[in-house]
Amino acid sequence: MLSTPLSFQMITRDMSATLKRTAAQPDVKRATEYYQENIGKVTSIDGFLDDQRLYSYAMKAFGLEDMTYAKAFMRKVLESDLSDSASFANKLVDKRYQEFAKAFSFLTPSAQSEDALADIEKKYTENATKQGDSQSLIRLSTLAYEKSLSAVKTVDDFLADDALVAYATTAFGVDPPGTAANAKIFLKRILTSDPADADSFAASQTKSAWKDFAAAFNFSEDGNVRIQTSDQATDTVSSYLRQTVEVQAGEENEGVRLALYFERKASTITSGYSILADTALLTVVQTALGLSSQTSNADIDVQASYIESRLDIKSLSDPAELKKFLTRFTALWEAANPSSTATTSVATLITGQSSSVMSADMLMSLQGLKLGGL
C-alpha cells in the first residue's frame, strides 16, 4: 500500500485527470448518465424521492449518503424556504442540508434562475439602448417580462407570449429563421435541448448566441420547467465525482480521505469555530498541529482561540500554503498510522520504536519538522 503522502500527491497532482478516470468507472458512469438523463423529468418532491437512483445520487453528491434512508427528514429539507431564517433547513447546524435544498427548486420552480434573469435583463438594457429605446420604456419592458415569466410553467407557455419571446431574443441579439410558425418550432427545439451537450440542437448552431440563449432558460427536454438548472445539475455531477474520489481513497487510507476533504472544504473555513463544527476538519487540524483529541474537552471558545493562534486560517485560501499544510498533515498521519511495513521500518530506524506505539512526545517532535508547514 502506498504511503499517505504519496497517495494524496498522486490523486491531487492532476485532479481533473483523477475525476475523469473516476467518471469512466462503469458503475459511476451508469449512475451519472442516469442522473443526467432523468433529473430533468422530475417535477415534484414525491417524484424525486421515489426515484431511488436519482435521490441516492444527489445525496452522495452532497456528502449525505448516510442519511439516504431518512426520506421524511429530507422532505422537510427540500420543502424549506431558504429565505426564511426559521425554516427547517436553516435551523440545522449542518450546512450541507442548506446546500442540498439550494440545489433544487421544488418550492418555486422558475424558467430562469436569479442569475440568469439578472443577466438577460442586463443584456436587454444594453441592446434596447442601442436600438434607441428610452430608459423608462426599458424599465417597463423589464417589469412586464419579470411578471409574465413568473407564470411560465412550460416552454409552450413561454412561446405563447410574444412579448416574452421578443424580450429574450432582443437580449441575445438573435432572430429565429422562417415564418412565425416555423420560428416557434425552431425556438422550442433550442429551448428544450441541452446546451452542455456538444451534439444538441442549440450547441450545433453556427451562431453561438443560440447556445447561450438555451442556457439562459431552465426547460427540460419535455418542455417543463426543471427543478434543477443545467448549471445546478452539472455542479451536482461534479460533486458526486469528487465525493466518489474521496470515498474510494478512504477505503484504502482514511488519512488520504481526510486530506482530500480538507482540501475541498478549505475555502469555507472562516474561523476556529468552522473547524470545531466539523469532526473531519478538526481531526486534520489536531493531527497537523500535534494536538491531542482530548483538547476537545476544553471550553469551545478556548479551543477556537487556540486553533486560530496556531493556524493562519487566511493562508488556507492560498493553494501553495494549503498544499504545505496538507503535506504536513499527511506526513504526521502516516507517522501515527503507518500504511506499510516500509513506513514502520523507517520510523523504527529514526525513533528506535514502532510508530504504531509512538509516544505523544515523539509525535510532537515530528510535528516540529519542516514539512512546508506553518
From TrEMBL:
This is Flagellar basal-body rod protein FlgF. InterPro entries: AGR-C-984p-like_sf, DUF1217. Gene3D superfamilies: AGR C 984p-like. Pfam families: DUF1217. It comes from the Bacteria. SUPFAM superfamilies: AGR C 984p-like (SSF158837). It comes from uncultured Pleomorphomonas sp.
